[in-house]
Amino acid sequence: MRIAVLASGNGSNFEVIAQAVKEKKIPAELVLLFSDHHDAYVLQRGQRFEIPCESFELKEFSDKKSYEAALLDVLKRYDVELVVLAGYMRIIGKELLTAFPNRIVNIHPALLPNFPGLHGIKDAYEAGVEETGVTIHYVDSGVDTGPIIAQGKVQVAKEDSLADLERKIHQVEHRLYPEVLAEICKSDEK
Ligand code: GAR
């Protein structure tokens, strides 16, 4: 399975995925890292893993449609079969969804359908929930609405700061995402 990771920022999830591919825990080839920010830290991580990196920004295009068309061209050029969103902070448009039906996976830092959107951890923290977590799901045309593949729960202790909760969420993400991707890639091999 030829996978591409799309990421916008730090890239800690990219890092654990790249490591799991390197150790053959995920039976796949990581053929591309794409970022929609030229200066995203994730690109430095990609270079360290010697994975082909590409980046361009929405503002370099006349509209979102031409940005997505360029992204689709890149994914085709690398013969990508599975698109893995890891902190990619954009809605996926119709063209990409049609080209990769049930082939785009996302990780969200809350127990969907609760707290969708850009600030899943903070929104759950400010709502004062005792339990939140992580969701991995297939991407559809909604915002964080596609079919759920797996969830991991995180308990919020009374004394937890927002930073504590972020740390707990990322720990679960870093365990769960490689596991789920390994399962997806294995079931595709059968
Ligand atoms: C992760 O917590 C991921 O769940 C979240 O962005 C973070 C990226 O961290 N994604 C979303 O909020 C998507 N709506 P990373 O860059 O260190 O992997």
From TrEMBL:
<feature type="site" description="Raises pKa of active site His">
    <location>
        <position position="144"/>
    </location>
</feature>
<protein>
    <recommendedName>
        <fullName>Phosphoribosylglycinamide formyltransferase</fullName>
        <ecNumber>2.1.2.2</ecNumber>
    </recommendedName>
</protein>
<dbReference type="GO" id="GO:0005829">
    <property type="term" value="C:cytosol"/>
</dbReference>
<feature type="binding site">
    <location>
        <position position="106"/>
    </location>
    <ligand>
        <name>(6R)-10-formyltetrahydrofolate</name>
    </ligand>
</feature>
<dbReference type="Pfam" id="PF00551">
    <property type="entry name" value="Formyl_trans_N"/>
</dbReference>
<dbReference type="GO" id="GO:0004644">
    <property type="term" value="F:phosphoribosylglycinamide formyltransferase activity"/>
</dbReference>
<dbReference type="GO" id="GO:0006189">
    <property type="term" value="P:'de novo' IMP biosynthetic process"/>
</dbReference>
<keyword id="KW-0658">Purine biosynthesis</keyword>
<comment type="function">
    <text>Catalyzes the transfer of a formyl group from 10-formyltetrahydrofolate to 5-phospho-ribosyl-glycinamide (GAR), producing 5-phospho-ribosyl-N-formylglycinamide (FGAR) and tetrahydrofolate.</text>
</comment>
<comment type="similarity">
    <text>Belongs to the GART family.</text>
</comment>
<feature type="binding site">
    <location>
        <begin position="11"/>
        <end position="13"/>
    </location>
    <ligand>
        <name>N(1)-(5-phospho-beta-D-ribosyl)glycinamide</name>
    </ligand>
</feature>
<dbReference type="InterPro" id="IPR002376">
    <property type="entry name" value="Formyl_transf_N"/>
</dbReference>
<dbReference type="InterPro" id="IPR004607">
    <property type="entry name" value="GART"/>
</dbReference>
<feature type="domain" description="Formyl transferase N-terminal">
    <location>
        <begin position="1"/>
        <end position="181"/>
    </location>
</feature>
<feature type="active site" description="Proton donor">
    <location>
        <position position="108"/>
    </location>
</feature>
<feature type="binding site">
    <location>
        <position position="64"/>
    </location>
    <ligand>
        <name>(6R)-10-formyltetrahydrofolate</name>
    </ligand>
</feature>
<feature type="binding site">
    <location>
        <begin position="89"/>
        <end position="92"/>
    </location>
    <ligand>
        <name>(6R)-10-formyltetrahydrofolate</name>
    </ligand>
</feature>
<keyword id="KW-0808">Transferase</keyword>
<comment type="pathway">
    <text>Purine metabolism; IMP biosynthesis via de novo pathway; N(2)-formyl-N(1)-(5-phospho-D-ribosyl)glycinamide from N(1)-(5-phospho-D-ribosyl)glycinamide (10-formyl THF route): step 1/1.</text>
</comment>
<dbReference type="InterPro" id="IPR036477">
    <property type="entry name" value="Formyl_transf_N_sf"/>
</dbReference>
